Amino acid sequence: MKKLLSLIIIGLVLPLTACRQTNKASDTSTTISKSATSRSVEPVAYSDLTKAQQGKVFFKFKALSDIASGDGNHNMPAPLVVDMTVKNNGKQNVSFNLAKFLMFDAKGNAPTVKSTKTGTLTLKPGETQKIHSIFENVASQTLVGTGAFYYMNVDFKLAYYLDAAKAEGVDSNNLKSGAAKDLNEKSQDKTASTSDNSPNQATNDAAAQQDTPAQSQPAAQEQPQQTQTITLQQAINTVRGIRPVDDNTESISGNPTPMRTATGRMAYWVKIMQKGGMAAGIDFTVYLDDGSVVSNRKPSEIGN
Question: Which residues are CB-contacts of 64 (< 8 A; sequence separation ≥ 6)?
Answer without folding.
Answer: 80, 81, 82, 83, 165
